[in-house]
Design brief:
This protein is mainly alpha-helical and 242 residues long. The protein has helices at 2-12, 40-65, 104-109, 113-128, 131-152, 157-174, 176-193, 198-201, 222-237, and strands at residues 74-78, 87-91, 98-103. Strands 1-3-2 form a 3-stranded mixed beta sheet. Helix 4 (113-128) crosses helix 7 and helix 7 (176-193) crosses helix 9. The protein is globular. It starts with a helix and ends in a 5-residue tail after the last helix.
Amino acid sequence: MKQAALILAALAGLAGCTMAPVPMPSAPVPAQVHAPAPDFRTAARTFVEVVAQVEPVAEGYCREKRPDLNCDFRIVIDDRRDAPSNAFHTLDPQTGQPLIGFTLALIADARNADELAFVLGHEAAHHIAGHIGRSRNSAMAGAVLLGTIAALGGADAGGIRSAQDIGASVGARSYSRDYELEADVIGTIIAARAGFDPARGAGFFTRIPDPGDRFLGSHPPNAQRIQIVNATLAEMRAGRVR
């Protein structure tokens, strides 16, 4: 609760900020999605309440599924006013503690507590599923493969380095869509366990640009993500997923 109070104090001081809205899709969306975002002071309080409710559930799920990991999540705020709406997961380079970050714009853009809970669960899921390490391994494998091919083809040192960079990028993105869907599944479970409605939370996907089926895109289509959330909830109700 001390951490929550500090976050609320920091956010309340920025309640007058004007946040850029999330781009709206051209297709019609459910009526509740068009509800205006709450004022920022209200959004700040909602965020603090969501963190207080979801964080212990995420940590408990992490310890249940991955006792080998550091499951002591730390929630941080990217307080740059010009930072786009975003949330992210990373690791503290000094301690290895998992960090989950939210930009002010994302907090302001959220229409309800369920959306924030789902996003928080999703980012925690990236840590639980070990996606940073898996992406790093994929990037390394891609760099080695294309670097070797370039070397065998007679490329000079600069050409080999360029091939390695391309290989690392391709390798890191090769499974990124699968990682996002896996995080959606785990995030749904965490949000539901914490008492939120992940289906309502997934309404966030109806307001962000759809990545579609672009080659080597890092995120799956929004419709597929919503489908995964609903399918996971159905599995939970049937007792097949816990």
